UniProtKB/TrEMBL annotation:
InterPro entries: MTERF, MTERF_sf. The keyword Transcription applies. It comes from Miscanthus lutarioriparius. It holds the Pfam family mTERF. Residues 1-28 are annotated as: Disordered. The lineage of its organism: Eukaryota, Viridiplantae, Streptophyta, Embryophyta, Tracheophyta. This is Uncharacterized protein. Belongs to the mTERF family.
Length: 377
């Protein structure tokens, strides 16, 4: 080695080593070169979106001069504050490529802090990014969470509803949400009841108020008293059915049960949620009840809640236990099947399975197998 070369090597060796490149930088190095700037390559190779998505995102990043800000954003999103995965980043950038233009300190960190001020943990904020990636950067946190947190009570409840209906984040609070709440209150529902109902049916809050009003009118026309659980069930059932679908369901049940429209209407008044059951499910349960259990259709009309239970996991297994006990004269021959069906599993076992373990030691295992679809011979 020449003296000059050796001197240069010694100087380099004495310098501090540059920081190790992150995986993001290493991936970028495979396609970037001096004098060449390819933002679409960055989006594909580093963020994982498709070429088509990258082409659509081009207008959002056409002003880029370097990758430095995007790198900082990705480091923050995947870092301790949020811990987003590669798949999360791909979804987020595909839905909102402008997220890569944000200032980490002036925008992203501030938004995360605002979430935390409303009781959200880092994991819950990450969950929000996954279910509403297009809103994380843009929605008004103080306006929306300032309303929803007191109304719903917890971030978990908020997230459960957003998973079902992301319009919860974007709906106009004054013109839509508050108007719908007032409509529901006019029909006798309390704020607490509205909050519970909307976990499973958030469209009642985010739909056009005219649609919500029409749902309430149709539920009222069913003849179920307001200020009751049945009315809340009627609202839930009607909210998921178009008027023509509801009419078809009523005709279908009248045909299966061989009864009049008026009789079906009275049955639905007893349990409005039977309207949300499919034709196949109702038909299979009715066939089992009439042909195997031996009850008539009047029995079903009088106890429509029996149509809400699972045929495989409840009706068939409990009928098996009933028949075994009747054959051994351990229960009356006229034992009510509905009584046995309507009990919780723990109460059912404590009354009809465990007390007979000495006489029928295999009954508990047979019942458990029946609940898994295996009926003993």
């Amino acid at each position: 080695m020449s003296g000059r070369a050796g001197e240069g090597f010694d100087k380099l060796r004495g310098r501090a080593l540059p920081p190790a490149r992150s995986p993001l930088h290493r991936r970028r190095a495979t396609y970037s070169s001096p004098g060449h700037f390819a933002a679409d390559d960055y989006l594909v190779s580093t963020c994982g979106i498709t070429r088509e998505q990258a082409a659509k995102a081009a207008k959002c990043i056409s002003h880029w001069k370097s990758f430095s800000n995007a790198d900082a954003v990705l480091s923050f999103l995947t870092g301790p504050a949020l811990g987003l995965s590669k798949a999360d980043i791909t979804l987020l950038v595909a839905k909102d490529p402008r997220i890569l233009n944000c200032s980490v300190d002036n925008t992203l960190r501030v938004r995360v802090d605002r979430f935390r001020s409303y009781g959200f943990s880092g994991a819950q904020i990450s969950s929000f990014v996954r279910v509403a990636p297009y809103s994380f950067r843009t929605f008004n946190i103080d306006e929306k969470l300032g309303f929803w947190m007191p109304f719903l009570g917890s971030p978990d409840k908020f997230l459960r509803i957003v998973r079902r209906n992301s319009y919860l984040v974007t709906s106009d609070l004054h013109k839509v949400v508050r108007t719908n709440i007032r409509l529901l209150q006019e029909y006798g529902l309390s704020v607490q009841e509205i909050g519970k109902m909307c976990v499973s049916n958030p469209r009642l809050l985010t739909s056009n108020p005219d649609s919500t009003r029409a749902i309430l009118v149709r539920a009222d026309e069913m003849g179920v008293p307001r200020n009751t659980l049945l009315f809340r069930q009627a609202v839930t059932a009607v909210a998921g059915l178009r008027p023509e679908t509801m009419a078809s369901k009523l005709k279908m049940m009248a045909k299966i049960l061989g009864c009049s429209d008026a009789e079906v209407a009275r049955m639905v008044q007893r349990n409005p949620l039977v309207l949300v059951r499919s034709r196949e499910r109702i038909q299979r349960i009715c066939e089992f009840l009439t042909k195997v259990v031996g009850v008539d259709t009047k029995y079903i009309q009088g106890l429509p809640t029996i149509l809400m239970y699972s045929l495989e996991r409840r009706l068939v297994p409990r009928h098996y236990v009933m028949k075994v006990l009747q054959e051994k004269a351990l229960i009356r021959k006229d034992q009510s099947f509905y009584t046995m069906v309507s009990l919780s599993d723990s109460v059912f076992c404590s009354r009809y399975v465990h007390p007979h373990k000495d006489v029928l030691p295999s009954l508990a295992d047979a019942y458990a197998s029946a609940c898994n679809g295996k009926i003993a011979n």
